[in-house]
Structures are given as C-alpha cells and as structure tokens.
C-alpha cells in the first residue's frame, strides 16, 4: 500500500491555551472584562482542564499524540508584581511531569492573550517597562519549569493581539488606537527578544531548547487573479501581517511557530475588503476552508532558514462533518511542502478539546474532544480517531485521499485537481 510518509520523530498532537480551557483564571484581564460585561461570555470553569488535565492527557495519549502545546497562565504564577505563587508553580510542574511521563512532548507558551490584572493596570504592553517585567516572569518559568521544556513559545500571536486589542478594539484592552498598537507590537518584540535571551541561558539539568513565538500567518492572495492592484495590496498586507514581526525578532528565534487558519482574498473597489467566494466551504466561524493557503505559507518560509512547527491549525465544526477532511487536506499540504524540502517538524491541531473561543464564547466547537459543559464529560470525536490513524502510521495512506475526490462538497475545484495530481504522481501499487 502506497503511503505518504512523514519524517521520523514528527511531532503530532494538539494545542490549548490556559484561559480557554482551565477555568477559574480570575486574576487576569479577560476574566475582569468578562465580568464587567465587556465580553459577553464569562469563562467560569471553561473545560475545567486545570483539574482534569490528567484525564485530558490520557485521551490525547489514547489518540497517539506525542506532543501537546499548552500555556502557562502568567496571572496564576505571578499574582502580584514580583511575587510568585508556589502552589501554581507546583501545579504546572505536575502538568509537565504528567506529559513527560506519558511520552508527550510539552510545547509551552508563556503568554496567550491574557495578562495579570496588575500588569493591565500599569498599562500592560504599552508600558515601556513591559519587556523587563515579562522577562522577569520568563526567568522564573525557566528556572522552575525549564528542566521539562525543550520547545518554548514566548508569546502567542502578537500581531493578532494588537489587531484585536488595539486596532479593532474588540479584545482587552478594547482600544482603537493604531499608534498605541504599533508601540505595543514593538514592546512585544522587545519582550520576546529579552525572553529569548533568558531562555537560552540553560541552567543545570536543562536540555537544549527551541524558542520562538506562535505566529498567525494567513495566505494573502488577490481576489481577482489578474488584478494588478489587488496583487500589490495582497503582497503589502502579507508583508505586514506575516513577515514584519519576524523581522523585528530577527536572530531571536530557533524555529517558526506557525498558526495557520485561512486564506485572505484581498478585494479592492476603492476600499480594501476581504472576499469569501459563496461556493467555498466554510467553518462554523464562517472562515473559508483553504488548505492550499497552508502550502502557500509553507513555501514562503524557507527563506528564514529555520525549522517550522505548526503550532495551530483547526476549525470550529460542531457537527464534526468537516474536521476530518480538513485535517487530511491540510496534512496533504504539509506533506507536499516536506517533499519539496520545507523543514516542518510537527503539526498541532487547534484544539485538543472544545474551549472558550475568546470573545465568541463557548458556541464554536474547535475540539478533537467534545466537552459537555453541563457535566464536563469528555467524548472523543470521530475525526480525532481518524487523525489518530494517521499519527499511528506516521503517514497518510493514499487510499484515504480517494473519498475526498469522490465527495468534493467542501473543496474547490483547484484542490480537487491538486489531489488528483498527487495520486497521479504517486500511483497506488
Ligand atoms: C488563537 C486561539 C484561538 C484560535 C481560533 C488562534 O488565533 O491562538 O487562541 O482560539 O485562533 O480562533
């Protein structure tokens, strides 16, 4: 049987973030905003992952995952400036040890959108001292968790944080102030560079490590292929969204953490907007399902000469009727990129379990594992088992592609042709 093999030691798994799954993160700015009615959905217990992590990781293991991306909640570790919490520290050490003992490589994020309230009160990332303040917390984490961690993500999606929090004003701190947003982006870059230097100081018992950010990169394309203005706009917006931050942190990352979700079709009719063809398949969030865009982004990255870890890729799909073809198609793109020489080290699906989708609340269902929020019961989704079958083989069996061709309900013609091509290049034996 013909298989599309992945490299040895490929990291397979899923990702989560503390505020979205743990529950009871009452000391951060999101919780505060939720309870002031500025966000319509309080996190409350979320998926109660803080207490149920062992159960959740057992399920991940059952699904063959050998890696898991999680975040440490800064507001738990440092509840007051410069004061660190021993109980929270012990908790995360237990979490990390549990992962290690179960053969799951932890990929650890230190900042995933939420800030301690005290930090938000001193103007958060607008504060010129924010890089040093963050670096102090990072040094504590390195000292207390570094012996368990090889893969670090300092900050999740700085560009998205700024876009949502400072340009659109829909996430804390709800500002619509572009100059401030740019200042915040620069401070985050500075904070990352400082954190990088801290984390590269390995103390006793610490292994070699890989440090980066998780960077949201979409595929920017002109809405009309031959429209010269849209072409130029797509490359300018693409530069500022995808490349600019990597330039800011130049020489301060060991790999590229890639969060890929979508294609952005740049449309211009006097004003810029993003176009989604009516016929295209969409997630429950209304995002276009666009696996080819992942290939476009992966092909763009080798110029940075660093390995790539896909730190997030996923969809909201409550019915679980698109998740499996979504995963399969995206993995086909990853595999194609690898055969072209792109150094991809792993794939982490967003998300291990249903969670609080930020400002959208608990409606969108991103999980490989379904959560019943009435009783916190867990249930593995069918798509997760199919993903597990790929993990188990470390390969995509070619016969799994055929059904995609027969049922192209969710996939545009271009992808169909592409898949046919793969089969032609690699005929079944
Ligand atoms: C974020 C996650 C979020 C996901 C889906 C990513 O950009 O890192 O926190 O839940 O997108 O919207």
TrEMBL record:
GO biological process, one term: carbohydrate metabolic process
Molecular function terms from GO: beta-glucosidase activity
Keywords: Glycosidase, Hydrolase
One family name in Pfam for this protein: Glyco_hydro_1
Transmembrane annotation, as ranges: none
Family: Belongs to the glycosyl hydrolase 1 family.
PANTHER family xref list: GALACTOLIPID GALACTOSYLTRANSFERASE SFR2, CHLOROPLASTIC, GLYCOSYL HYDROLASE
Protein name: Beta-glucosidase
Lineage: Bacteria, Candidatus Doudnaibacteriota
């Amino acid at each position: 049987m013909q298989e599309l093999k992945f490299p040895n030691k490929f990291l397979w798994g899923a990702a989560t973030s503390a505020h979205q799954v743990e529950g009871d993160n009452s000391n951060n700015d999101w919780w505060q905003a939720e309870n002031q009615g500025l966000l319509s959905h309080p996190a409350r217990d979320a998926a109660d992952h803080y207490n149920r992590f062992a159960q959740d990781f057992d399920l991940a293991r059952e699904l063959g995952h050998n890696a898991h991306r999680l975040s440490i909640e800064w507001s738990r570790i440092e509840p007051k400036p410069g004061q660190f919490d021993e109980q929270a520290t012990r908790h995360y050490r237990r979490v990390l040890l549990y992962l290690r003992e179960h053969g799951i490589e932890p990929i650890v994020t230190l900042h995933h959108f939420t800030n301690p309230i005290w930090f938000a009160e001193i103007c958060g990332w607008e504060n010129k001292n924010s890089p040093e303040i963050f670096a102090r917390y990072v040094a504590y984490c390195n000292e207390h968790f570094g012996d368990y961690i090889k893969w670090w993500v300092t900050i999740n999606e700085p560009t998205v944080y700024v876009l949502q929090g400072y340009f659109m004003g829909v996430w804390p701190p709800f500002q619509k102030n572009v100059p401030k947003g740019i200042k915040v982006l620069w401070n985050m870059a500075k904070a990352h560079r400082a954190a990088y230097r801290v984390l590269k100081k390995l103390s006793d018992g610490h292994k070699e490590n890989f440090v980066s950010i998780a960077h949201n990169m979409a595929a920017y394309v002109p809405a009309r292929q031959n429209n010269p203005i849209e072409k130029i706009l797509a490359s300018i917006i693409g530069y500022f969204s995808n490349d600019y931050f990597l330039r800011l942190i130049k020489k301060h990352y060991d790999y590229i953490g890639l969060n890929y979700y979508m294609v952005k079709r740049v449309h211009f009719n006097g004003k810029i907007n993003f176009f989604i063809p009516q016929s295209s398949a969409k997630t429950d969030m209304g995002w276009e399902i666009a696996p080819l865009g992942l290939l476009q982004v992966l092909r763009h990255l080798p110029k940075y000469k660093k390995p790539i870890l896909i730190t997030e890729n996923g969809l909201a799909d409550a019915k679980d009727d698109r998740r499996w073809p979504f995963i399969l198609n995206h993995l086909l793109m990853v595999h194609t990129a690898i055969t072209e020489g792109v150094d991809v080290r792993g794939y982490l699906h967003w998300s291990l379990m249903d969670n609080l989708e930020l400002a959208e609340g608990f409606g969108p269902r991103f999980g490989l594992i379904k959560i019943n929020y009435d009783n916190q019961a867990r249930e593995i989704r069918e798509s997760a088992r199919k993903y597990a079958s790929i993990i188990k083989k470390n390969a995509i069996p070619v016969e799994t592609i055929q059904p995609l061709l027969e049922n192209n309900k969710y996939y545009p013609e271009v992808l169909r042709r592409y898949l046919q091509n793969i089969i032609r290049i690699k005929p079944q034996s």
